[in-house]
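Hi support team,

I submitted a single chain yesterday and got back a structure, but I'm not sure I'm reading the token output correctly. Could someone confirm the output below corresponds to the sequence I sent? I've pasted both exactly as they appear in my results page.

Thanks,
R.
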Amino acid sequence: MTFAQPFWLLLLLLLPFLMFQYKKAAVKRHVTLQVSRLNAMKGFKTWVVYARNWIQYVRWLAMIAMIIAIARPQLRWYELETKVEAIDIMLVVDISPSMLSKDFRPDRLSVAKEIASKFISRRPHDRIGLVVFSGGAFTQCPLTTDHRILQAFVNNMQVGRLADGTAIGMGISTAVQHLDKSDLKSKVVLLITDGEDNSGELGPFTAAAIARALDVRVYCIGMGTDGLVTSPTYQNRDGSFAFATRQMKLDVRLLEQISESTGGKFYHAANSGSLSSIYPEIENIEKTKISKIEVARTTELFFWFLNAAFCLLALELMLRWGPMSVVTV
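Hi R., thanks for writing in. Yes, this is the structure output for that exact sequence:
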């Protein structure tokens, strides 16, 4: 904790002098009363009688709190530069309607969000971005180390924001375009999809060739199983989807070829438990040392001391003017 205006703390040096003067004057304020018998002064004393001896200390504590508040205590911001090992990663997530299929609970897209969130939490120093695709592709979040914002984008992914279809090539090429601007040695695309490539202006093999030319590795996660699955069939006018059991197919061979041609790896996620195998694999990728600057914001603390001073002054008034005793005859 630091102080924005520490010179006000010099007022604390005056408190011993003020306390001495107060004690000296208190002797003159006391009145001596002579009585013939102490029985006349008997009564039932309240707790205030015993607490009055502490009134002056409550006042001094209130003054100390106010002086500290005037000096503006704060948690001052700082810049901390550290050397860390990191890679640049673009998450490429399929948001086509088939990602609402029910062979995962509650659906494939929800599990994909969970995969992405856990992956981001395990990579505190990496720059990570997000591309979503279905019939087309667009960048949801560029490369960033602000993982709180990235997590918000991941949680906000929804089906129906793009034209229907599965443009795997467009998703990969959009991510590679961002990674091409990176100066790090290790660059990775993590593709999460559940279908066959059936749309887009750029084919998946062309996109893989571009990634290979730019030293970008593509890791593919294929979600779902082949066969009959409860899946969306059409979209209602209100934006909801109608579901029915229909035949689904995952193009495993395509995803394997994309991964192998770029030096990456393919993972078939038939269930949530099989997804964990990808994390140790990417942990072993060669990383690049970068400088990371962390900036902490300034937090003002003076209002806490003002609140304490107010409460202490209120306590002093209560002790000073409260009922002293109830006298019985």
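A quick pointer for reading it: The chain has two domains: 2-77+297-327, 82-292. Let us know if anything else looks off.

Best,
Support desk
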